[in-house]
Structure formats: C-alpha cells, structure tokens
C-alpha cells in the first residue's frame, strides 16, 4: 500500500527586476544562498527587490514580505542581512485579497517592526503594473513544481446521511430561505471586498505620500548645500575685498612717508642754497633752478606712479564690488530656483536627486520613529517635544501631559488633603485621543470634572 503525499504550505522567494519577476526559488535554496553555498553572479553589485511568499496547496498567496537584498561584486548577498521574514509575515497586517482572502502583507508603509522598515519596499499598485497581481499570476503558473491540492468535490458516505423526522418534512419554503442566505452572503462578500479595496487605497496613498516626502527632503537638502556654497564664495570675495582695501591703505601710508622724505630733502637743499648764497648770487640762482627742476621731476614722477597704482586698485575695487553684486543676485536666483524645484513633480525630482539622501531617524512615544528632513534638524534641536507634538497633530502642552500619562497612567486629580489620587488607569496610546481632565482621571474624579464643566 503506497503512502499518499499531501500538499502543504510552501515558502518561496522571488526576485523583481525592471521587467518583472526574474527569479524564483524555494526558501531552502534562499537559505543556501545566504549561507554562501551558492552565488548569483547575475545580481552582482546590485540592490535587488525581493519578496518572501507563503503559498497554500491551491497555489494561492497567503502572506508576502517585500524586502531589499544587496549583492557584492562576486554575486554574494550581504553577510549582515538578518531580517526575520517569518516573524514579519506572521505579525503583519491585512493586505489585498489575492484569491484566498486578505493576505498578510509586510512592506515599507506597513511594517510590524519599526526598525526593519527602512529595509523594506512598497509594491507598486498602479493598474497594469501591480506587483501583487504579478506575484499572484507567477505563483499560479507553478514554475517551482509545487504539489497542488485536488479541488474535486468529495462525496459523502451513505451511512453518514441522516433523515429528518417526518414532522419536519413540511418545513418552510427552502427556496425562500436559500434566497435569503444567498442575499446575506452576497452582502457580506460585498462588505469584505469594499473593506479590502479601502485598505488597498490607503496603502497606496501612504506609499505615495512617503515617497513624495523623501523626494522633497532630498531637494531641500540639495538647495541648502548649493546656498552654502554660494555663501562661501561671497565670504571669500568679501575677504579679498578687505585685503585690497588694506593694501590701498598701506600704499597711501607709503606715499605719505615718501612725501615726508621729499620734504626733508627739500629742507636740506634749502640749507645748501643758503650756504651757496654766501659764495655768489649767480651760482645760487643756477643751483636753485637745478634743485627746483630736479625736485619737481622727482615729485611728479612719484606722484604719477602712485596715482597709477591707486587708479589700478580703485578699478580692482570696483570690479570686486560689481562681482559681489552679481553673486548676491545669483544667490537670489538660486533661492528662487530652489523654491521652484520644491514645487515640481516627484518623478523629475527623483531623476535629479536619486543619488543624494541623508536620513535622520529619532523615536518619540506616540509618534514612533520619525524621519527628520535636513532642514528640520535645527527646529528639532531647539524643541524636540514641540516637533514630536506637531507630528502627532497636538499642541506641545497636551503632548507633554500625555507623555506623563503614558509613562505613568494614573489619576492626576487632587484629594482634599492635597495629595494626588494616583489610581491606575488604562493607558491612552495616542496623543490625539488624550483629553485633559478625562483621560487622566479616574471614574470618580472624571465625574467631578464633568460637573464643574457643566456648571
């Protein structure tokens, strides 16, 4: 007697490329790839989009986890990769119905473990390019050769049939009951499909919103870097201008010193002339004329030379001022371009800044892990509480009172003796649902608070 092999749930891994699904393998083969037993040279120096899939015996998808996997220059996967695929598949939320009811879906916008979120990716849900539909069709083709469950209807043994008593033969109209049951079933299926469609649309909106925020953050970071470069150039030009001004002052000082020297020489020559006058008027006139001509020539030459130097410096100074004005205009133009870039579409921004990106991640209760754009770092440092409160859509005082309640959920009301009530309360996990005077009070003090409000 031969033993019949029954189909079971199967774990598989598929690789996505720009053209669709390019590789399928069973989970044991994927483990061998991670252990270094085999390599995949066709994926070398690439970051691949991969999906872990749980398949039932009828070749229908029951769970999916979409994650990234990097390969080195030899086609070996990243040795530090350690995403718990089975754990994420078990704890993930509900996704679209791929034929066997809503699947369990773990992706970037729906991750049950927040610190693994950055290593996951969102499948495309665009009609005609739906990754989930592509995954469903690929599994249905069964290129992995999985055992399939026989859908034939099993007949019921005659001995298991039971005959209703004669007093129940004339029951109410079965056609009416069947119609009512069918209508109820159709209504229930319609509600389930509607809920699944709403879930799918919310997932798509969340994915597109996150991608747009990342693209805007990258654009603002690039604009800030460009502005810093232009400001550095302006500062360099200002420094060069100051150096030229200092050089002009130095040249004017040298000119004044030489003028003093000429004055001293003039006085010395005047004394010589007075001495020569004693020896003869004629010789004195000759020496005086010679002295004046030589002195005027030397002074004129020095004045012309220094005037030329000052004129050259003045021209350079004017050029520096004109260049400074041009650079300031260029900075204003770049700021306008930065604002224009911030309002452009996501695809054009992504093409320009695909290789740039710095991500700052912090954790705050109620807000979870926050990705802070570069331009928000200063605002976050000034007041982290206010930043987290804004992300939770509440005011900072409410967020602080909620945080105190979250850390120690107990009644904050005061007793007649001045002590704090302190009765343990149910914790409110969301700041926006926290109501001061209600969420932080026990039932007795909550009623007192309401009476005071009414009065």
Automatic annotation (TrEMBL):
Keyword Coiled coil in annotation: yes
Coiled-coil segments: 176-279
UniProt key word Coiled coil: yes
Keywords for this protein: Coiled coil
Protein name: Chromosome partitioning protein ParA
Organism, as annotated: Pseudomonas turukhanskensis
């Amino acid at each position: 007697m031969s033993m019949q092999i029954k189909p079971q749930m199967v774990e598989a891994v598929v690789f996505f490329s720009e053209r669709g699904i390019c590789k399928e393998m069973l989970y044991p083969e994927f483990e061998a790839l991670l252990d270094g037993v085999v390599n995949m040279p066709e994926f070398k120096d690439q970051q691949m989009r991969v999906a872990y899939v749980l398949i039932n015996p009828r070749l229908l998808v029951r769970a999916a986890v979409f994650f990234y996997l990097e390969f080195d220059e030899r086609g070996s996967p990243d040795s530090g990769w350690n995403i718990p695929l089975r754990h994420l598949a078990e704890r993930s939320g509900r996704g679209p119905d791929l034929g066997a009811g809503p699947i369990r879906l773990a992706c970037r916008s729906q991750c049950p473990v927040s610190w693994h979120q950055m290593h996951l990716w969102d499948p495309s849900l665009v009609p005609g390019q739906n990754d989930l539909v592509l995954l469903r069709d690929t599994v249905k083709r069964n290129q992995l050769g999985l055992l399939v469950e026989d859908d034939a209807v099993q007949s019921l043994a005659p001995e298991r049939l039971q005959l209703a008593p004669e007093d129940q033969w004339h029951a109410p109209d079965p056609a009416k009951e069947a119609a009512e049951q069918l209508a109820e079933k159709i209504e229930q299926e319609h509600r389930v499909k509607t809920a699944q469609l709403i879930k799918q649309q919310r997932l798509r909106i969340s994915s597109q919103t996150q991608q747009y925020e990342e693209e805007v953050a990258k654009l603002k970071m690039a604009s800030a870097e460009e502005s810093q470069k232009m400001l550095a150039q302006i500062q360099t030009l200002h420094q060069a201008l100051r150096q030229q001004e200092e050089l002009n002052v130095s040249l004017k000082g040298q000119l004044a010193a030489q003028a003093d020297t000429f004055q001293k020489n003039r006085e010395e020559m005047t004394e010589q002339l007075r001495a020569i006058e004693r020896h003869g008027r004629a010789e004195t006139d000759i020496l005086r004329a010679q002295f004046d001509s030589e002195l005027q020539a030397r002074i004129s030459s020095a004045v012309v030379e220094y005037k030329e130097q000052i004129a050259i410096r003045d021209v350079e100074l004017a050029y520096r001022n004109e260049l400074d004005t041009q650079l300031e205009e260029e900075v204003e133009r770049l700021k306008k371009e930065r604002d224009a870039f911030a309002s452009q579409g996501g695809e054009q921004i992504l093409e320009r800044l695909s290789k740039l990106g710095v991500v700052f991640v912090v954790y705050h209760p109620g807000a979870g892990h926050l990705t802070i754009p570069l331009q928000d770092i200063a605002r976050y440092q000034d007041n982290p509480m206010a930043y987290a409160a804004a992300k939770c859509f509440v005011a900072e005082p409410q967020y602080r009172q909620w945080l105190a309640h979250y850390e120690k959920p107990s009644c904050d009301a005061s007793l007649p003796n001045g002590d704090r009530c302190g009765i343990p309360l149910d914790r409110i996990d969301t700041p926006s649902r926290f109501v001061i005077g209600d969420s932080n009070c026990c039932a007795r003090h909550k009623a007192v608070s309401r009476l005071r409000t009414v009065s």
